[in-house]
Amino acid sequence: MKPFSWRFIRVWQRNRDVFFRLWHSEAPGFVAEPIIILVAMGLGLGAYVGLVDGQKYIEFIAPGIIASYAMFSASFECTYGSFIRMEYQRTYDAIIATPLNVEDVIAGEIFWGATRACMTGTVILAIEAAFQLVASPWALAIPVLVLLEGIMFASIAILFTSIAPAIHSFNYYFTLFMTPMFFFSGVFFPLSGFPEVVQSLSWILPLTPVVHLTRALFYGQFHHGLLWALAIVMVETALFFSIALVMMRRRLTT
């Protein structure tokens, strides 16, 4: 694996400029859907659900909505978005012809995916604050957490993109990997309600520790187990980032 250089920021800037030209067609979907989920599940289903861990149901799911849609934002950007830039627009080939190397391109893609995750998470946090759901000033640290989460999920997405033979392959990624995380990472239900086997397996899913950390910041409730969750996120982020650089170099140079 070769190191990437500061030039990766040029790839990030290129993606940023494209986004701000097209934001009116891209951004609403990532904002409207989590609001619909929050209202439909929190208020609709919540009317039939009692207290969950001593909280109203909408209060319980609010932090998980932030974490999960930050995950989706980074993942969509670095699967469909990256594949289109790589295979259809040939943007990567054009960039590599400049002084930037492959690692610069991939790092720029990953950090842009993380930026999209941070933007999505921050907007949802602001909306939930308007709903008066935020209970602790520690929630101000959530954008930093979702930025780290974004690097992790953007790296995982780029890794899958490096082996995807066609754009239709991403159906498997979202159906078999993303959707189970959405439902089995503690977003909508406490993990304590699942069998012990499911509880243990859920910690293999990268979203689970992020949901726990987000919920702790959201309500200012901390315990020693959160250090373990943070360690998992940091290790998985470094691991998948490194593997993504190696695999995508092979994809682009062979």
Could you characterize what this model shows?
It is a single chain. By secondary structure, the chain is mostly helical. It has one domain (8-253). Helix content is 74%, strand content 0%. The two termini are 15 Å apart. The mean pLDDT is 90.
Helix content: over 70%
Helix/strand class = mainly alpha
Q: C-alpha Rg, in Å?
A: 18 Å
How many β-strand runs?
0
Averaging pLDDT over every residue, what do you get? 90
Uncertain segments: none
The fraction of residues in strands falls at under 5%
| N to C succession of SSEs | HHHHHHHHH
Shape descriptor reads globular
Q: What summary fits the major beta sheet?
A: none
Give the count of structural domains. 1
Assembly state of the chains shown: single chain
Number of helical segments? 9
Distance between the termini: 15 Å
Summarize the entry for a quick read.
The protein has helices spanning 8-44, 57-88, 91-96, 102-130, 142-161, 170-184, 196-202, 207-219, 225-253. With 254 residues, it is an all-alpha fold. The relative contact order is 0.15.
What are the salient characteristics of this protein?
9 helices, single chain, 0% strand, 254 residues
How does the SSE layout of this entry go?
Layout: H1 8-44, H2 57-88, H3 91-96, H4 102-130, H5 142-161, H6 170-184, H7 196-202, H8 207-219, H9 225-253
